[in-house]
Amino acid sequence: MGRLRTLTTHDVEKLLFEGRQIVIMDRDVLQLDGWLNEHPGGRLAILHMVGRDATNEINIYHLSSTIRSMQRYRIGRLINPWKNRTPPIRGGAFADPDEIDLTESNSDSDLSDATTICAHSTSSDDVQHHDNARLRNVTKQGVVGDLPGATLTKRSPPSIPQRDAATEALIQKTIQGEVDDNIRDYPSLDSRTQREIEDRYHALHDRVKNEGYYECHYREYAKELARYLTIFTLFMTTLLHGWYWTSAALLGLFWHQIMFTAHDAGHRGITQNFVYDTLIGIFIADFCCGLSIGWWKSSHNVHHLITNHTEHDPDIQNVPLFATCPSFFKSIHSSYYDFTFVWDKAADFAVRYQKYTYYPVMGVARFNLYILSLHHLFLGPKPSRSTRWIRKTELASMACYWFLFGYCLVWRTLPDWPTRIAFVLISHIVTLPLHVQITLSHWGMPTADLGEGESFPQRQLRTTMDVDCPEWLDFIHGGLQFQAVHHLFPRVPRHNLRRLQSLVREFCEETGIKYTILSFKNGNEKVLGRLQEVTAQMELMLQCQRYMAETGESGLH
To answer: What is its EC number (predicted)?
Structure first.
């Protein structure tokens, strides 16, 4: 391979303006247009990195062999420091650098080099205050961005209803309050501070690799397998003896436990081989549990990249049943589902009681996962050529699950409809702790977006919470209690996370990033408190609307 050509910031900006899918990795400029629809992790994972330095994300999500294979997409070497731009999928647009240079040469004002905050707080009307000459490139996503270094704005899709000015001001004030709190409680967003945090994170990652944290200890999975087989044997024994309720509870416990290993496989944390771990994940998730590992990986990859972002993280998009942030009051368009979550009367009603419906809904959440899995397999994005076999294997495995569980067990083995209904409900409700555990680490944490200036490790630690528990209880939590550690190093096998936690604590002490860890009880209280807080904010918004309707005044002073 010949020597790579050197590219300036201006050159890269020009490529972005032309619509190329450009990602920066260790100063290498990658053009990923040809790989966009072939990426096994889904095209959204790439789209969320366009215009950004994705060195951290690429290094922690991919094996060294995969990273080496990316060399074929290198088109040059960047010689200037790169400042992250907001990807079009998140509301950014890339202006013509030639036109910017011409405009700035005739202007006395310079763009501020300070990091600016983007927390869904800029209304669509604010777009008019920017220089239209700098906004030539309107993306296909229907959003408009601004220049690097300036506040990025987003135009709401036409299907999102607009609220009156007073209500909008109240929502924006509430959102900005969380932004201000996060700025106060976490390290400065200036480029020097965030660069130092990233340098320490790189050093920590080197230590994680060198000290063997990525090595999987298969003896731990031997213990796991013994536990799974014991639970499954007890389930079959009680079923054959006609102890149907006990059998249902044991089946739910089996699902609860075995899905932890599917999570490991989804992150390639077992064999670190894409094909082998995918097959393990399909066997557990699709064949044993009736859930699509392909759907899970598709949504989970995005969740890890843009954690707790209301418009992009599918894990917190649960309107009208739940709202964990006042941003949902404005109605948001999900970039993952390509669907508008409209705030309506149903949301007004359901969110008023969300603190009380949290556990009941978590008890039946598995039924929703069936729907999402089937939607992905039959109506989801067309798989790439390299992953077409996965979709076919999933469909076959899912068919086996429904034949064995739905027909052989529920229909043929259980004697009558009351028993069938009770069996299905009990087996699914028993998985409630798993769904609570999944939501626990994020629903009580900040959702404010502090912009492209925030480093990857700081955002992950700011939006994620660990759960403290004694080591002997680790099998109940399945490694999900170390979510903050896991979000920093998602490929590390879960049996190594407790040991790695001490290094993450040291990293947080060195960088000044707050490390949030609570007991399971206190974590639940934090989530319920957050739900109650958002309910109170919604009630205030509704009071404002009623006052406006009655008096014609906002009541805001």
So the answer is: 1.14.19.18
| Bridge partners, 546 (sequence order) | none
Q: Are 491 and 162 a contacting pair, CB within 8 Å? A: no
Contact status, residue 135 vs residue 95, Cβ threshold 8 Å? yes
Tens digit of pLDDT for each residue in 75-117?
999 998 899 999 999 988 898 888 876 565 555 444 334 333 3
**Of 169, 127, 170, nearest in space to 150 by CA:** 127
Half-sphere exposure at residue 489, Cβ-oriented, CA atoms within 13 angstroms: 29
**Contact present, 145 and 88 (Cβ < 8 Å):** yes
Provide the whole-model pTM.
Answer: 0.86
Pick the closest to residue 492 from 199, 264, 301, 204 (CA basis). 264
Q: Where are the beta strands (DSSP E) in 386-480?
A: 466-468
* Domains of the chain, earliest start first: 1-84 (3.10.120.10), 93-155 (no CATH)
Contacts 24+ apart (CB under 8 A), 175-181: 175/119, 175/120, 175/121, 175/325, 175/326, 175/327, 175/448, 176/119, 176/121, 178/119, 178/325, 178/446, 178/447, 178/448, 179/117, 179/119, 179/121, 179/448, 179/450, 181/446, 181/448
Rounded CA Rg of the chain: 25
**Residue 274 parent element (H or E):** helix 274-281
The one-letter amino acid at 138: V
Token pair 């954690």: residue: 307
Per residue in 252-266, pLDDT (tens digit) is 999 999 999 999 999
The three-state secondary structure class of 370 is helix
Q: What are phi and psi of 114, to 5 degrees?
A: -75, 150
Asked if 513 contacts 232 with a C-beta cutoff of 8 angstroms, the reply is no
Concatenating the DSSP letter of every residue in 129-195 gives GS-GGG-----TTS-----TTSPP--PPPTTSPPPPHHHHHHHHHHHHHHHHHHHHHS---SHHHHH
- Asked if 531 and 541 touch (Cβ cutoff 8 Å), the reply is no
3-state DSSP assignment of residue 22: strand
Helices (H) and strands (E) in the chain, counts: 22, 8
| Contact by Cβ (8 Å): 538, 319 | no
Q: What secondary structure letter does DSSP report for 78? A: E
81's tokens: 């420091």
Specify which residues 339 forms β-bridges with: 334
3-state per-residue secondary structure call for 327-364 = HHHHCEEECCCCEEECCCHHHHHHHHCHHHHHHHHHHC
Residue 76 φ then ψ, to 5°: 175, 175
Q: Which of 510, 511, 506, 454 is nearest to 485 (CA)?
A: 506
Q: Name the residue with tokens 């969740």.
A: 303
Whether the per-residue pLDDT at 433 is higher than 80: the answer is: yes
